[in-house]
Design goal:
Layout lengths: L4 H10 L6 E2 L26 H10 L7 E8 L2 E8 L14 E3 L4 H14 L18 E2 L2 E2 L5 H6 L13 H6 L7 H9 L15 H15 L3 H13 L21 E2 L7 E3 L15 E3 H12 L6 H7 L3 E2 L7 E2 L4 E4 L5 E9 L2 E7 L5 E6 L7 H16 L9
Helix pairs in contact: 2-11, 3-7, 3-8, 3-10, 6-7
Length: about 400
């Protein structure tokens, strides 16, 4: 899922009673705990001044209760934390925290789809109708003229389910199962936003359909395919496709939403992730996401031909130079070059992550969303950029 401030902000404003309201977070910077406290040694030697400043800003000026950043390269990893995991107990953010990753689910789904392309079980430029006959119909939406590639690249023109899902309905029962076909039909009750292939607009509906295609082709759910093709081979022990389970396994921060500028936080930790599905339902950790992104961009998960297709981007119109491939986006780095990754939002959490081709990765998480500011999102992306640029040699002059 991706941020829809108007939709999701209204969701919590209309249904605050879905979670317990708690007072404003006291987001004081929490010092890094030493190994004697029971946390893993994470390679922090007291540097990273700019990163510490950004994390502190996330949990003070930007208003998030807590933040975590994990940086990884070929020499090891460093975890930095700030703020609190729980605004009631004031417990610090655990360095091994798991959290809901929202739209960072999309690179996992796209990777599985491209594996199927490499196996010649799916054709990128074939119509969706080939695999889901009759599913994409109505109000001008037509699976016969929309391709698999367009689903993955957000160029299908399909209406986004998050633009039309009733805010009050989601939190009327946050533990309710949301059937993927019902979510798709909510979107398809509305006309397309443009003719397929003629524009770009972020669309969660396309990834719900991608999950259905994976299931149709393999006979297994998209979650089972992610587990057998990515999670198990890479040893991602902190990554889950939870289905309907509202719990977050292992150490994790509470997830919060802020229904208004001065409103108390609402605890939304327990929610049925089926509302995100293949568009945003997964749980992971900073270390696992970094390992996944590294394996992906360095060709461990896809054949060269399919990785090239994933990295063939198109502009999104974003002022920061973001370009979107197939479930993977790229952004420019200061001083030259680009990094590959994704961002994600799900009730209670916001994430961002990226990797460079020379072996650096960074993932940042805050436990606030929706209700986070634009400054929060900007500072998260700045933290990823800064982490990926630390220690880089400037490009050689010609």
């Amino acid at each position: 899922m991706i941020r829809r401030r108007g939709v999701l902000g209204g969701l919590f404003g209309l249904a605050v009673t879905a979670g317990a309201a708690v007072g404003p977070a006291t987001a004081a910077d929490v010092p890094w705990p030493d190994a004697a406290a029971g946390f893993k040694e994470a390679g922090d030697t007291g540097g990273h001044a700019r990163l510490r400043e950004l994390l502190h800003r996330l949990t003070t000026a930007d208003g998030a209760p807590g933040a975590l950043l994990e940086v990884r390269d070929r020499h090891g990893s460093t975890v930095l934390t700030s703020g609190v995991a729980d605004v009631t107990s004031h417990a610090p953010v655990h360095p091994d925290s798991r959290f809901r990753i929202g739209s960072m689910t999309k690179p996992f789904v796209a990777t599985v789809m491209l594996r199927l392309v490499g196996e010649r079980r799916v054709v990128l430029d074939a119509p969706v109708e080939r695999h889901l006959p009759g599913v994409v119909r109505g109000h001008g939406n037509d699976g016969r003229v929309i391709t698999v590639r367009q689903l993955l690249q957000h160029t299908s023109g399909l209406p986004d389910v998050l633009d039309h899902l009733s805010p009050a309905e989601i939190l009327k029962d946050p533990l309710a199962h949301r059937d993927v076909r019902d979510l798709v039909n909510i979107a398809l009750a509305h006309p397309p936003t443009f003719e397929p292939g003629t524009g770009w607009r972020y669309c969660n509906t396309g990834y719900l359909l991608a999950g259905l295609i994976i299931e149709k082709v393999t006979g297994r759910s998209y979650g089972e395919e992610i587990r057998r093709r990515i999670i198990v081979p890479l040893g991602l022990h902190e990554t889950y496709v939870p289905g309907d389970d509202p719990a977050i396994p292992g150490p994790h921060p509470r997830g919060y939403a802020r229904p208004g500028n001065d409103a108390p936080l609402v605890d939304v930790t327990a929610i049925n992730p089926s509302v995100g599905g293949a568009g945003g339902g997964m749980i992971s950790s900073g270390s696992d996401l970094n390992r996944f992104l590294d394996a992906l961009v360095r060709g461990e998960l896809l054949r060269p031909a399919q990785l090239r297709e994933m990295m063939r981007t198109r502009p999104t119109g974003s002022p920061d130079g973001r370009a979107y491939g197939l479930g993977l986006e790229s952004r420019p780095l200061p001083g030259g070059g680009r990094y590959w990754g994704h961002t994600g939002d799900f009730p209670g959490f916001e994430t961002a992550g990226g990797a460079t081709l020379d072996g650096r990765q960074a993932t940042v998480m805050v436990n606030l969303g929706p209700g986070g500011s634009d400054a929060q999102s900007a500072d998260m992306k700045a933290a990823v950029r800064t982490a990926l640029c630390e220690g880089r040699r400037p490009p050689a002059r010609r």
